[in-house]
Amino acid sequence: MAPNTLVIGAQRSGKSRKAEEIVSSAGGELVYLATATAGDAEMAERIATHRARRGGDWRTVEEPLDLPGILDREALPGRAVLVDCLTLWLSNLFGAERDIVHETDRLVAALQRTACPVVLVSNEVGAGIIPMNALARRYADAAGILNQRVAAACDRVILMAAGIALPIKPSPFPEPA
């Protein structure tokens, strides 16, 4: 298994830019696995901005639902893969009424089979107040569990805050005696 990294943080914290830097420095063919779909003009603009920032060195693969399957096909030797992002993937799974636990299990299993470095981007959505409606609470809970499972499966976890990368796994602090 190649080393994998989770880059997590709030919206506009610099997650995608940091993930792009990590993948670019890994060497090999650069593969961008996009989970977003351009459902409206604002999202289409976000996608275009990300694409323009990456430039022509990246090969983009769009897959809104079968992230584990596309990882199996794309995380091959000689490549470095960026998955952007898990929270949009989770939204897509909710919309398609997929079994979230099963799909999370599939993703974790796929991460254990990667043959190249994979960097995954995810939002930390549960850091605010508890949502008012049941669907939003279910989504926040599912995102928290997804992030925990992926973080456990990754060698490194980086928290982004205000554009600053804070390594949290492996821990920068010594274990207590």
Please provide a written account of the structure:
The chain has 177 residues and is α/β, with parallel strands linked by helices. It has a single domain (4-169), classed as P-loop containing nucleotide triphosphate hydrolases (Rossmann fold), CATH 3.40.50.300. The chain has 6 helices and 7 strands, in the order βαβαβαβααβαββ. A 7-stranded mixed beta sheet has the order 3-2-4-5-1-6-7, sandwiched between helices. Helix 3 (67-74) runs parallel beside helix 5 (100-111) and helix 4 crosses helix 6. The mean pLDDT is 92.
Provide tags for this entry.
Rossmann fold, single chain, 177 residues, 23% strand, 6 helices, 7 strands, alpha/beta
Give the arrangement of secondary structure elements.
Layout: E1 4-9, H1 15-26, E2 29-34, H2 41-54, E3 58-62, H3 67-74, E4 79-84, H4 86-95, H5 100-111, E5 118-123, H6 134-153, E6 156-161, E7 164-169
Parallel strand pairs: 1-5, 1-6, 2-3, 2-4, 4-5
Antiparallel strand pairs: 6-7
Helix pairs in contact: 3-5, 4-6, 5-6
